[in-house]
TrEMBL record:
Protein name (database record): Phosphate transport system regulatory protein PhoU
Family: Belongs to the PhoU family.
PhoU domain: residues covered: 1-75
InterPro entries recorded: PhoU, PhoU-like_sf, PhoU_dom
Pfam families noted in UniProt: PhoU (PF01895)
PANTHER family in UniProt: PHOSPHATE-SPECIFIC TRANSPORT SYSTEM ACCESSORY PROTEIN PHOU
GO BP field: intracellular phosphate ion homeostasis; negative regulation of phosphate metabolic process
Domain of life: Bacteria
Amino acid sequence: LRDTLDAFIGEDIALATSVLQTDDVVDTYNVDLYSRVCQLMEKDPHLVKTGMNLVMVGHNLERIADLATNIAEDILYMKQGKEVRHRIEEQKK
C-alpha cells in the first residue's frame, strides 16, 4: 500500500509496475495462510473461531493488495495512456 501511495504521489511508473508484480505474492501468501489455518482447525476444533478470524484477516489483506494494484494500474494509465488491466489478467492465464 505504501508503494502504491508513493507511486501515486511521485507519479513513479517503475514503482507502480513493481506494485503489480507484488500482488501475485500477496495472493500466494493468502492461499498458503488459508491452507495452514485449515490444517490447524482440523487438528484442533477449538481453534475454529480464531482460525476463521485469521482467514478473514488474510482475505482482507489480499483485498487491500488488489485495490492497491487497481490504483497502480490507474497510475500507469494516467502516465502512459495505456490500459494494463486486461493485459495483466491475460498474462496470468
